[in-house]
Description:
Layout: E1 22-25, H1 27-31, H2 41-53, E2 58-59, E3 62-63, H3 76-83, H4 85-89, E4 96-97, H5 101-109, E5 114-120, H6 123-130, H7 134-150, E6 154-160, E7 164-165, E8 169-170, H8 173-186, E9 190-195, H9 202-214, E10 222-226, H10 233-243, E11 247-250, H11 270-279, H12 288-302, H13 309-314
Parallel strand pairs: 1-2, 1-11, 3-4, 4-5, 5-6, 6-9, 9-10, 10-11
Antiparallel strand pairs: 7-8
Helix pairs in contact: 2-3, 2-12, 7-8, 8-9, 9-10
Protein name: Hydroxymethylglutaryl-CoA lyase
Keywords: Lyase, Metal-binding
Organism: Streptomyces mirabilis
Amino acid sequence: MSTPELGLPMVVPAPELPARVRIYEVGARDGLQNEKATVPTEVKAEFVRRLADSGLTTIEATSFVHPKWVPQLADAEQLFPLVSDLGRSSGVHLPVLVPNERGLDRALALGARHVALFASATESFAKANLNRTVDESLAMFEPVVSRAKADKVHIRSYISMCFGDPWEGPVPVHQVVRVCKALMDMGCDELSLGDTIGVATPGHVQTLLAELNEEGVPTSALGVHFHDTYGQALANTLAALQHGVTTVDASAGGLGGCPYAKSATGNLATEDLVWMLQGLGIDTGVDLARLTATSVWMAERLGRPSPSRTVKALSHKE
């Protein structure tokens, strides 16, 4: 008998936590972009549909970057039309990553209404990922944000290397705040604070959030994106929840990494996050059994077991 059938996890709420958390599912984009094997377009589309069927309402579908840089997502034009009806029929948001105006053009041509940029808090990662300085990349984003806002398209920006950089080491909080504030002033609707190499700890998370608030960036506009390199992703998520954050990025089955930061391991697994949130009595709208089954299904297609501890526990057969 599985643990949910036994009534586990037992629900024991903790004080001063949000009643509901929006999970921003990144498995189909951030998760699959780092896979070595080519995942067929039809399998990706089925993955997105199964994720939606589990109750997830924000599912990042793909990326409109140049195929040369992320070949795993070269089929964006073919994939998006296969899943776009979810937005119309089920109210599922299907954000897509756009690196520049050309990417925005491609996304808008297919009817995307939620897009995301990919910024950096450090010069080294901006150079590796965008081939620009931080300020040059911000200048590149300005027309993208302006055009998205004019077209009433919701725009998020990821900020990578918010807590540590594999080339530069610790990243000063004020440096992260400067980039975040520039993106908010530009008109971004939402920011996702990325711990790209998984080195954050809870005190660091709360300090960054407090500094952002002091500089006028509201908690309501912030999401968090943790990698579990050192086993800190759930602890860091709880620290963010205690600060009032209600948007958490996660990847079904713990898929993903970063092709430009080799020390980055998988994202926080969505199932591990849901297990913790259920135990805290926090609503997510996600059916954990269905989500686990989806990750097992995808793991079979990738030819390896899911790294998610919750997936392993719930799919274990005696």
